[in-house]
Design brief:
Layout (H helix, E strand, L loop, with lengths): L2 E5 L2 E3 L5 E8 L8 E6 L6 E6 L6 E3 L7 E6 L4 E6 L8 E7 L12 H4 L2 E2 L3 E5 L2
Parallel strand pairs: 2-11
Antiparallel strand pairs: 1-3, 3-8, 4-5, 4-9, 5-6, 7-8, 9-10, 9-11
């Protein structure tokens, strides 16, 4: 059974950092594209970052470029989103998701349509 479980959310002051984790089970995360999304209250879900399968290319939304870093640890079957220089506008529920196609690739534009498995989310609150 495919399962994704996010963790690492919490409250942080502006300028602070958090690292989100996405623990995968039931499949080998390495072979599938992974993406991070977020949804703020009253707003549509936004694609934040994604990574091609086999630790390939990475992609970022303009709003997080230079501040967020996506990665994965194949030995731990876990994906990560390192978030630095956090801003109040980063406040949202963050979700990880993966594609179901072996060897999949991703893009910021198409990631909403290419991800098939989703976690339940973790809340990030950036405020002073």
């Amino acid at each position: 059974q495919v399962q994704l479980v996010e963790s690492g959310g919490g409250s942080v002051q502006p300028g602070g950092s958090l690292r989100l984790s996405c623990a995968a089970s039931g499949f080998t995360l390495q072979y599938y594209a992974i993406g991070w999304f977020r949804q703020a209250p009253g707003k549509e879900r936004e694609g934040v970052s994604c990574m091609d399968s086999n630790n390939g290319n990475t992609y970022y939304a303009d709003s997080v470029t230079g501040r967020f870093t996506i990665s994965r640890d194949n030995a731990k079957n876990t994906g990560y989103l390192q978030m630095n220089s956090l801003k109040p506008e980063d406040t949202a529920v963050y979700y990880c998701a993966t594609a179901s196609e072996y060897g999949s690739k991703c893009s910021i534009i198409a990631m909403h349509y290419s991800m098939d498995y989703w976690g339940k989310g973790t809340l990030v609150n950036v405020s002073s």
